[in-house]
Amino acid sequence: MEATVLSWRWQYGDCRARHYEVLDATREQGAPRLVARLPRPRGARCPYEVIELERADTYAWNVTGFPSLEAYEKRGVPAWRDSPLPSRYVLSCLMTKVR
User: What's the count of helices (H) and strands (E) in the chain, helices before strands?
Assistant: First the structure.
């Protein structure tokens, strides 16, 4: 798997330039999709181990952050997805690509 650098910021956190491992890179209905795994340690401002990016339009991306690989793998399981446990919190937001 290829490693490269990803950087993203949002209102509640900041994941500065970090190398990542590509878990999946596909095109869904012509739009690119990337699932990346960030190395540890991450810290309070960047608590996500797995980031899923799906292009919404030319400059916008739907970004979902998962606290662990297990959370990403079980994202469709209702008992996991709807759990109030902090270790299962998922961030999902629309972000704008600046570079």
Answer: 2, 6
Lookup: tokens for 87:
């270790």
Q: For the segment 62-92, what is each residue's pLDDT rounded down to a tens digit? A: 888 898 999 999 988 988 878 888 878 888 8
What pLDDT, in 10s, does the model give residues 20-42?
Answer: 889 998 887 778 888 999 887 66
Q: What does the alpha-carbon distance between residue 10 and residue 8 come to, in Å, rounded to a whole number? A: 7
- Tell me the pTM: 0.80
Q: What are phi and psi of 32, to 5 degrees?
A: -70, 150
Residues 33, 24: contact at Cβ < 8 Å?
Answer: yes
C-alpha dist (Å) from residue 19 to 30, 42, 47, 79, 80: 26, 12, 15, 32, 28
